[in-house]
From TrEMBL, chain A:
Main location as per UniProt: membrane
Example of a GO cellular component annotation carried by this entry: cytoplasm
Membrane topology: Peripheral membrane protein
Keyword Plastid: no
Record carries keyword Cell cycle: no
Originating organism: Poecilia reticulata
Annotated InterPro entries: PDZ, PDZ_sf, Synaptic_Scaffolding_LAP-MAGUK
Annotated spans, Disordered: 39-58
PDZ domain ranges (all copies): 15-112
The protein's name: Tax1-binding protein 3
Superkingdom assignment: Eukaryota
Keywords, in A-Z order: Acetylation, Cell membrane, Cytoplasm, Membrane, Nucleus, Phosphoprotein, Wnt signaling pathway
PANTHER family, alphabetized: DISCS LARGE (PTHR23119), PDZ DOMAIN-CONTAINING PROTEIN (PTHR23119:SF50)
Length: 128, 517
């Protein structure tokens, strides 16, 4: 999940599609985000590299749309509906997620267990 | 004086059989002068087992031997004279001091009268040839007079102070300065006698200017003396660590560049102020433990005599002892722990009793105000009588506390009463009165027999007039104990500066917000 400045970021990502739930006037997704390029990366408990200023999932409402869709706490959000989330401010990220006109958000998220799963599968079946 | 001593001694012995335990007696009250006090004090030392008012339990014999070793001797006239003589310096050291002092005085007089002689001699030897002394010349004569006066005062201030100590070797810088002054004055006299006296120079102004230059140069030599003797050692250069060999008390001091003997003198002066008094009674516990370690093992030589060389036997014996001691399960640490805990508890209990007794005793005394109506003369007491009146109520608790902390030989009853009278006079609280007994203080605080007439021996591998160096070690031996002094150089400090612009103090907030979507 760490990156070298100037080089393209490579990560194993999972595609998650969340249907927004209507509660009264608001459309909610059922999770909380933290991080951003204007925030302090050292206080992020979920990141491996403490200088990573990406957007992370910090809380998931149990039974909410995010949990149902398969989002887990500690996931790093790489893209939202095609918009990049690795170099945005906190407020920009919030805006991209809470657009009133969209009912569905398609996220690309990455987590450590994904990489390990890929490594495991590569290792057990070499050169498939 | 002899019969007076004998008579009082017999009086003491006779009344001692009753052993009433009275605290006041005729012979203490009559001690008015200092000499009288010291004589009565010495008699008390000899006959303490008679007059000890703390005759409360059967181990008064323990008190006798603990106070002083001379209690079993009988004092005679010669002994008193010998004791008095021991307290002053011996004859040899006195002789050297007088010789040095007389040389210094002669040199001083020579130096002082030389300019005067320069001025006066032409008038005496050839009065008819002299020119009159003009204004400038008179001004110079006045300046010579005042400079000489200043020189006199300065020399008196620097050199004629009471000697603090007798050091083993001579003071190198003083010798250097004396030689310099002597050379200087001699060369001036030579020049004077050859050029002026011989040729009978009539120009008086030249002679006066010559005398002025001599006095100026002497003032500069005095400045050199101040710098060498006083100023040079002020800047701290070495840190010395002083450890008392018997109980490990350690202090650190900063000294400047001194010779080893002067550094030793500075250390001794600090010792008298800072180190708590040396108490040999506190060391008996560790000595008995050490004796027990050695006594536990016995080595038998099974092979019989004459088998090996004696050195081989001794070595193998000691090795066998060390190995056996290492293997043996030693429980002396357990004993030490419980003994110390028990002792601590006992000391605290006695201390609590003592504090309460003293506070209660102090409440019995009230300072009489001037405005109060005059009471009967029997009621009004001076501080000494007041101290003697309240002392019995706290005497037992104090004696028990001093015995528990093994300090009873440091404080005589007379000194305790004197201290009590002093505290009453100066309105000290009971806590202030007790402070001297609860914590051991520096050596000078106690009676004169603890520090008067102490001889210190300086033991050093380097020459004692050589300077103090990094890592130099020397010992200061006294009768009972030894001080080990090591010196370390204070490191050279390389300091650099960093400038901080006051406008550069700026701050940002570190956020970590969490938004739910």
């Amino acid at each position: 999940m760490s990156f070298v400045p100037g080089q393209p970021v490579t990560a194993v990502v999972q595609r998650i599609e969340i249907q927004k739930l209507r509660e009264g006037e608001n459309l909610i997704l059922g999770f909380s985000i933290g991080g951003g390029i204007d925030q302090d990366p050292g206080q992020n408990p979920f990141s491996e590299d403490k200088s990573d200023k990406g957007i992370y999932v910090t809380r998931i409402t149990p039974g909410g749309p995010a949990e149902v869709a398969g989002l887990r706490i500690g996931d790093k959000i790489m893209q939202v509906n095609g918009w990049d989330m690795t170099m945005v401010t906190h407020d920009q990220a919030r805006k991209k997620l809470t657009k009133k006109r969209e009912d569905v958000v398609r996220l690309l998220i990455t987590r450590k267990s994904l990489e390990e799963a890929v490594k495991h599968s590569k290792g057990s079946h070499p050169r498939q | 004086m002899d019969h007076k001593v004998q008579a009082t001694r017999s009086a003491l012995h006779s009344s001692g059989d009753e052993c009433t335990g009275r605290f006041t007696s005729v012979h203490w009250k009559s001690a008015d002068t200092d000499a009288e006090m010291s004589r009565t004090w010495k008699r008390q030392r000899a006959c303490v087992h008679v007059w000890d008012p703390f005759f409360l339990d059967d181990n008064w014999g323990e008190t006798t031997t603990a106070v002083t070793g001379t209690s079993e001797h009988s004092l005679s006239q010669e002994d008193i004279v010998r004791i008095t003589k021991d307290l002053e310096d011996s004859v040899g050291l006195d002789c050297r001091r007088y010789v040095t002092r007389s040389i210094a005085v002669i040199l001083g007089l020579l130096v002082f009268f030389t300019p005067l002689a320069f001025l006066v001699l032409p008038h005496i030897l050839w009065p008819d040839k002299q020119q009159r002394c003009e204004t400038a010349c008179e001004g110079l004569v006045i300046s010579v007079a005042f400079k000489l006066l200043i020189l006199l005062l300065a020399v008196w201030a620097l050199f004629f102070r009471p000697a603090r100590a007798g050091l083993p070797r001579v003071f190198v810088f003083r010798i250097l300065l004396a030689v310099l002054v002597l050379l200087f004055v001699t060369s001036y006299w030579l020049f004077y006698s050859v050029r002026i006296l011989h040729s009978q120079d009539p120009d008086y102004k030249d002679i006066v200017q010559y005398a002025v230059s001599l006095v100026d140069a002497l003032l500069f030599i005095h400045y050199l003396a101040v710098v060498l003797l006083e100023l040079r050692q002020l800047q701290p250069c070495y840190s010395v660590c002083v450890t008392r060999a018997t109980d490990g008390e350690t202090r650190h001091y900063n000294l400047g560049q001194l010779s080893i003997q002067r550094a030793a003198l500075a250390v001794i002066e600090h010792y008298y102020c800072d180190f708590p008094i040396h108490n040999p009674a506190l060391l008996s516990a560790s000595k008995s433990r050490a004796a027990k370690h050695l006594a536990g093992l016995k080595v038998y030589n099974v092979d019989g005599p004459g088998n090996n060389a004696s050195a081989g036997i001794a070595q193998s014996q000691s090795r066998a002892m060390i190995a056996a001691a290492a293997r043996r399960r030693d429980t002396s640490h357990n004993e030490l722990y419980y003994e110390e805990a028990e002792h601590e508890r006992r000391v605290r209990k006695r201390r609590a009793r003592l504090v309460v007794a003293v506070e209660e005793a102090f409440t019995h005394i009230k300072r009489m105000q001037e405005e109060e109506p005059k009471k009967a003369p029997g009621d009004v007491m001076d501080p000494r009588e007041a101290a003697q009146a309240i002392f019995p109520s706290m005497a037992r608790a104090l004696q028990k506390y001093l015995r528990t902390t093994k300090q009873q030989h440091c404080h005589s009853m007379e000194s305790i009463q004197q201290h009590l009278a002093f505290c009453i006079t100066n309105k000290l609280t009971p806590k202030a009165f007790l402070e001297g007994y609860l914590t051991p203080g520096p050596t000078l605080q106690y009676g004169k027999d603890h520090w008067l007439g102490r001889r210190w021996t300086l033991i050093s591998e380097a020459s004692v007039t050589s300077g103090l160096k990094d890592g130099s070690v020397f010992l200061l031996k006294c009768v009972d104990f030894c001080l080990v002094v090591t010196s370390r150089k204070i490191p050279y400090v390389q300091m650099s500066e960093e400038y901080i612009d006051p406008k550069s103090h700026k701050f940002v907030l570190r956020l970590q917000s969490e938004t739910s979507v």
